[in-house]
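Q: A small favour: would you put together sequence and structure tokens for a protein?
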Amino acid sequence: MIKRTTLADIAKAANVSMMTVSRAINNKPGLSDELRQHILSLVEEMGYRPNTFARGLATSQTTTIGLVVPDNTNPFFAQIARGVEDAAFENLYNIFLVNTNEDAVRETAALETLWQKGIDGVILCSSRLSGQALEYQVQRFPAIVLVNRELKQSHANLITINVNDHRSAQRVLQHFMGLDRRVIAYIGGPANSFSNQRRLDGYKNGLRSAEIPYNPQLVMSTQPTTEGGREAAAVLLRRRPDVNAIFAYNDLVAVGAMQMCQELGKRVPEDVAIIGVDDIPLATIIRPQLTTMHVPLTHIGRLAMRALIDLIAGEGSSAAYQIEPELFIRDSA
């Protein structure tokens, strides 16, 4: 077994006390520049890494945070997770990634486990909990960032990051109107998704602005997957074969809807124009390429991690960030 280099090993090699080594590593005053540089060179040469467990005992921090997502196979959350992990690595934090499978019961159990571990904070993405249950969880953790959720009241330990879903839906409707499409369907996501509720509101407002009556026959809910999009589109297009535009909850749903259109002999975009949300890598791989509302997912992940670190360090305060998506026009609409 390879022996781990300790603070004592560095002190012995530099012929100084462990306190002096600690001061050099933590950039504390009281050392000459020459001695500090000599110690830091030995740290690098000997491969010393701080013992985060021991540091946690001394600071009451674990340098570990929880990242909770509804579906870690969904590219939306995978890209957010990538941003979180990159920022965590840069700041010497570890990540507990937990998948809840779109299930509020599993989400509650995951948060209970993380709370028992005494982690420093949580990034909770697209929570499926009720408002009351979410309020309770927010108050348990020393620092928490909510992605795609918000609460009625602010908390000192809370930062929220939300995509402007309402404006996103309105922008999609405007684009369809410019294409002279007026029989516009919305294939939404899970009923307990707050992003879905906001997009549905934006869809209704977009119709209202165009003086098109809202028709519940043109709205469906489904799981936020390709198969969910296929199944919903099959029902929708058999019910309303005159549909000439589909706004999809996310890109996976949009791709599934596109596949079903093609199977039913409907051309995209000639017969049915389709627009998704997120701009995952799949959007540019499929043919026709998917028109979608671009969301900077990796940026959101990095922003969430940096905001959480500031809260943990006592350098941040309650804040609400809003991300403005951008329409990327490709071939499907």
Q: What stands out?
A: The longest helix spans residues 75-90. The chain has three domains: 7-49, 59-164+297-325, 165-294.
